[in-house]
Design goal:
By secondary structure, this protein is α+β, with helices and mostly antiparallel strands. The chain has one domain: Mog1/PsbP, alpha/beta/alpha sandwich (Protein Transport Mog1p, Chain A, 3-Layer(aba) Sandwich). The chain has four helices and twelve strands; from the N terminus they run αββββαβαββββββαβ. The strands form three sheets. A seven-stranded antiparallel beta sheet has the order 3-4-5-11-10-9-8, covered by helices on one side. Strand 1 and strand 2 form a beta hairpin. It is globular.
Length: 180
């Protein structure tokens, strides 16, 4: 029975690895704004002085090639708003509105998914978006995600650039968000 369980676990592990699922994560800590979350170990978040922004980029050659082709070489950009979530959304005049405790696209065509953890709340939203692949524009070929989370004092936005996060990565990232 133990050998059958071992073989089953080995096969499942090989299946998830073969299809790009990330199984090893590391902690990204922002000591200025006092929060952390987990990201795949082959990603890195750094300040980009050219754009005056924080960006997450892949480190592995395979992912670098994929993200450089159509996604500006970036997994997601990170922005900070020095207010609670509702005030931040109101101030940036973005594409979201709140109704009855839920967030929607501003034209109310699609409901965002609310997320929350100990001492924070937020939402994420996935939509079709334009991407540019090697100088060619594709109006609705990408899948952009906005992930907002806030402790009531600071709101953080993680914004993908045309490639949605794998569900397992999104789930791990959201589950691991922690303000301190």
């Amino acid at each position: 029975m133990k050998s059958l369980l071992f073989v089953l676990l080995f096969c499942l592990s090989a299946f998830f690895t073969a299809f790009g699922q990330k199984s090893h994560f590391k902690k990204y800590t922002n000591s200025v704004h006092h929060f952390y979350f987990l990201i795949p170990e082959n990603w890195d978040i750094r300040y980009n002085a050219i754009d005056d922004s924080w960006v997450c980029t892949p480190l592995s050659p395979e992912e670098k090639a994929a993200y450089n082709h159509c996604y500006e070489g970036i997994v997601f950009k990170m922005e900070f708003y020095f207010s609670g979530l509702d005030e931040a959304l109101l101030n940036i005049g973005g594409p979201y509105a709140k109704a009855g405790g839920s967030y929607y696209s501003s034209n109310r065509s699609k409901k965002a998914r609310n997320i929350e953890g100990r001492g924070w709340a937020g939402f994420y939203y996935t939509n079709a978006c334009a991407i540019n692949c090697n100088g060619k524009d594709f109006p609705v070929a990408g899948e952009c995600q906005d992930i907002y989370f806030s402790n009531g004092k600071i709101t953080v936005l993680l914004e993908t650039t045309g490639r949605a996060l794998d569900k397992s990565i999104l789930d791990m990232l959201v589950k691991s968000i922690h303000f301190y």
